Amino acid sequence: MSHPYRLDALDVALLAALREHPRTGLVEIARMVGVARATATARLQRLEAAGVVTGFGPDVDVTAAGFGVQAFVTLEIAQGALDAVHRDLEAIPGVLEAHATTGSGDVVCRVAAASHEALQEILVQLNRSSSVVRSTSVVALTCLVPWRTLPLLRSGAAPGSGRSPSYR
Predict the structure, then answer these.
(1) Confidence of residue 1 (pLDDT cuts 50, 70, 90)
(2) What pLDDT score was predicted for residue 132?
(3) If we measure between CA atoms, which residue out of 94, 92, 26 comes closest to residue 56?
(4) Which domains, ranges and CATH numbers included, belong to the chain?
(5) What is the model's pLDDT at position 162?
(6) 92-105 pLDDT per residue, tens
(7) Are the C-beta atoms of 75 and 126 separated by less than 8 Å?
(8) Radius of gyration, alpha carbons of the chain
(9) What are 122-161's pLDDT values in tens digits?
(10) Is-above-0.85 flag for pTM?
(11) Is the pLDDT of residue 106 over 50?
(12) What is the full DSSP assignment across the chain?
């Protein structure tokens, strides 16, 4: 079993700079955090190789893109049907993400739709899966804390390791 990559203060500073200035080139990012371009490049390559950095695509706000009705759906699935429900969920475009979970349900999905009628159709599609025994949905009203990672990364960075970057 591989061990998780241990971030240090420089890694977090690089990630913060990239997150806050996604269109800025690596030379400028290196300047912002106070390291040489080669150092920033090597660190970023290590973060990619370790699977910490998973992409550089644009973040998309699905509400702004016309899919303002969102819900969280808990699925109870038939015993041993995780692979089948995985395939069924991937076939539904409105399923943004799905996680196998503990608790009263087996899978929690985040879905998005353009209207309440479109949300109803997604819910019908979910229930058509032969693997789904029961579903429960709750409509999201307001996003209180959007997806974020920097506070967590900053709290878990190895103390005293890497350079002490000036970028915050």
Answers:
(1) very low
(2) 96
(3) 26
(4) 9-58 (1.10.10.10), 69-140 (3.30.70.920)
(5) 57
(6) 999 999 999 999 89
(7) yes
(8) 20
(9) 999 999 999 999 999 999 999 999 999 999 998 988 776 5
(10) no
(11) yes
(12) -PPPP--BHHHHHHHHHHHH-TTS-HHHHHHHHTS-HHHHHHHHHHHHHTTS----PPP--TTTTT--EEEEEEEEE-TT-HHHHHHHHHT-TTEEEEEE-SSS-SEEEEEEESSHHHHHHHHHHHHHSTTEEEEEEEEE---SS-S--HHHHHHHSBTT-S---S--
Residue with tokens 């970028």: 167
**Residues composing the chain:** 168
* Tokens representing residue 93 in the block: 């475009």
Six-digit token string for 50: 């370790």
CA distances from 23 to 29, 47, 58, 81, 168 (A): 10, 19, 10, 42, 18
Token pair, residue 41, equals 């490049």
**Tokens at 77, concatenated:** 């699935």
